[in-house]
């Protein structure tokens, strides 16, 4: 079952949405729902999930394989012996 969603837009926004829907060969409603759904999914995407091509994966995997190094940061700023 679908639900209604009522929106108010400025005339320029409506014209832009209409032009885009015409350019994609879809109805205004289909275009707006599709674009809004895609934008919402992108915004809410799990930041722990990311896609890499083969080259990107090699760089990421190599970084994980390197030994950890100490990073100088806030705790050291508070230690007078390390200044």
Automatic annotation (TrEMBL):
InterPro entries: Ribbon_hlx_hlx (IPR010985), TacA_1-like (IPR014795). Keywords: DNA-binding, Repressor, Toxin-antitoxin system, Transcription, Transcription regulation. The keyword DNA-binding applies. It comes from the Bacteria. Pfam families: TacA1. Belongs to the TacA antitoxin family. PANTHER family: COPG FAMILY HELIX-TURN-HELIX PROTEIN-RELATED-RELATED, CYTOPLASMIC PROTEIN. This is DUF1778 domain-containing protein. The lineage of its organism: Bacteria, Bacillati, Actinomycetota, Actinomycetes, Micromonosporales.
